[in-house]
């Protein structure tokens, strides 16, 4: 991929250019470490790092042009400087153009919401592939281009990485891209240049208030996906809403797309006729616009009923036939870290789940309770440098819904783990008879404590990190995998 610098400058009519505008650009990046010969380097001003400080380094590595807000006193030799008022806004305009707007060539399905995005997007990917399409996926766990898998570092990558990934999908012949779309990405315009075709809202519950400040701001950020759904020229734009979530009615009124709804009420397009939840599977019969679907699912839990209904809404909007949808749903056995059963030869049930919000924890605890014959354990913590308002809320939910509560660390980041636990414990001061509460800031020790003391019919839910195989501490990031801890414990035990 290459572009004449002059063609990029046409998108920035107010820019001041110092140097040769006839340069050929072969790459775009805002990361000085990724600069290569022919790069356009974008100097971004972040909260802690200013990209302007790396301009000389970028020049040494072969950058031929740079987007800047502040002109240096001396321009690096051979580098054309393009001064704009806002390099981030310029990046949002230039990057999709450089990659020939791949988000307008692919059919784009975006799933947003506090919980359920990963499970939903993974099922959608499988259904579309079963229907004969080539599919890319961008999500919390990984990025997939057909069968090629790479790790993901953000739920939704930044503009440059996202456009580059979409371009690779186009080059690989993909028909579809299925994306988890985060509120951060929408608010920060990481999805600039993408024209979505179908958008699904799973739910909106408390999360990311450290960034959005209020639930209204959080909801409004999610709403952007639906408000702009009919922008562009592609046909058949559809919005799929969970009408049992109060935010859906508000956002539904803001979209001009075709609407499909799902939920408990019979006034929805998709609703459950019956469902039975078992420890390792569930039966679900649904009313849909194309007739009843009678499903035998290898995933379980009421929250997965909603995930399945949202997926079906999206697939019906994309004209996928009923038999294909049913075949994939009946065979789907879950996503790593999403209500994942861990089998290590133990006499009780162990579940690993990513639940890190009040709503997410409540959902998985209720589901775990429905399959528990003995005592229900929960091992959880709360992330540092994130919304601290949810800490006592999650503590109260754990005490209400579990019998044995072990409070530990999640990703403490720069915060003191003990102080995070203290905030959770403000809701754990009045422990009812028959319940027990423990604290252990070392996550491995906390998990091992539950594993050592659980009885045969108990269920242990290890919540918060799910698929993550690392833990972010104050001074370093270490390898840490909840499932591995369980497997290692029982391996040593044997």
Explain how this protein is built.
- The protein starts with a strand and ends with a helix.
- The longest helix is centred in the middle third of the chain and has 16 residues.
- Helix 5 packs across helix 12 and helix 16 packs across helix 17.
- The protein has 494 residues and is of the alpha/beta class.
- 49% of the residues are buried.
- The strands form 6 sheets. The protein has an 8-stranded mixed β-sheet, with helices on both faces. A 6-stranded mixed β-sheet has the order 19-20-24-21-22-23, with helices on both faces. The chain has a 5-stranded mixed β-sheet with strand order 2-7-6-5-4.
Could you name the key traits of this structure?
34% helix; 3 domains; 494 residues; Protein-Tyrosine Phosphatase, Chain A; UDP-N-acetylmuramoyl-L-alanine:D-glutamate ligase; Udp-n-acetylmuramoylalanyl-d-glutamate--2,6- Diaminopimelate Ligase, Chain: A, domain 1; 17 helices; eight-stranded mixed sheet; alpha/beta
Q: Give the strand order, joined by hyphens, for the main sheet.
A: 11-10-9-12-8-13-14-15
**How would a textbook summarize the main sheet?**
8 strands, mixed
Query: How many alpha or pi helices?
Result: 17
The tally of domains stands at 3
Helix/strand structural class = alpha/beta
The CATH class of the largest domain: Alpha Beta
Question: What are the low-pLDDT stretches, counting only 5+ consecutive residues below 50?
Answer: none
Number of strands: 26
Shape: globular
